[in-house]
TrEMBL record:
<feature type="transmembrane region" description="Helical">
    <location>
        <begin position="150"/>
        <end position="171"/>
    </location>
</feature>
<keyword id="KW-1133">Transmembrane helix</keyword>
<dbReference type="Pfam" id="PF02325">
    <property type="entry name" value="CCB3_YggT"/>
</dbReference>
<dbReference type="GO" id="GO:0016020">
    <property type="term" value="C:membrane"/>
</dbReference>
<dbReference type="InterPro" id="IPR003425">
    <property type="entry name" value="CCB3/YggT"/>
</dbReference>
<feature type="transmembrane region" description="Helical">
    <location>
        <begin position="96"/>
        <end position="122"/>
    </location>
</feature>
<protein>
    <recommendedName>
        <fullName>YggT family protein</fullName>
    </recommendedName>
</protein>
<keyword id="KW-0472">Membrane</keyword>
<keyword id="KW-0812">Transmembrane</keyword>
<feature type="transmembrane region" description="Helical">
    <location>
        <begin position="62"/>
        <end position="84"/>
    </location>
</feature>
<comment type="similarity">
    <text>Belongs to the YggT family.</text>
</comment>
<feature type="transmembrane region" description="Helical">
    <location>
        <begin position="6"/>
        <end position="25"/>
    </location>
</feature>
Amino acid sequence: MSNGALFLIDTLFNLYIMVVILRLWMQLARVDYFNPVSQFIVKVTRPILDPLRKVFPTIGRFDIAAAFLVLALSALKIYLIMYMRLNGFPFSVLELFIASIQAAVITTLNLMFWILLIRAILSWFSQGRHPMEFVMAQLTEPMLSPIRRIIPPIGGLDLSVLVLIIIVQFLRISLGG
């Protein structure tokens, strides 16, 4: 199969996996449900998540159905790409399961990195009134506030985003991403 087809499969799976991760993360962080960005993510994920919720319950704020969907989509992506590259899948189900967990964690860390980077760049230019900025702030504040307690802003410069980006990148590289 051509590299273009593999790229397209990888990209489409990654985009939808990221949307499902955002849905799970938004529920954990209690992001404003009525925000237009939140509504978009809910509408895009609802057709697949609603039937899964009949099988996988939500425990507190943790959506088991969304976590299962992330792992299932990651496993399907890995399987399809490996099958197309090697004309078969020479790995065990356990290896596929472990690879899908690793891929899901790395995708989550990549998403966190980009959200933190975009939020940092927007803080230099924007007034903070866009719905996307509200969502990014609600997603990242639970992780940034503990860092701010340890490293308070120095001369008006908040280093918590930089520290979290370094932690996220360290974890991502450590996992082989």
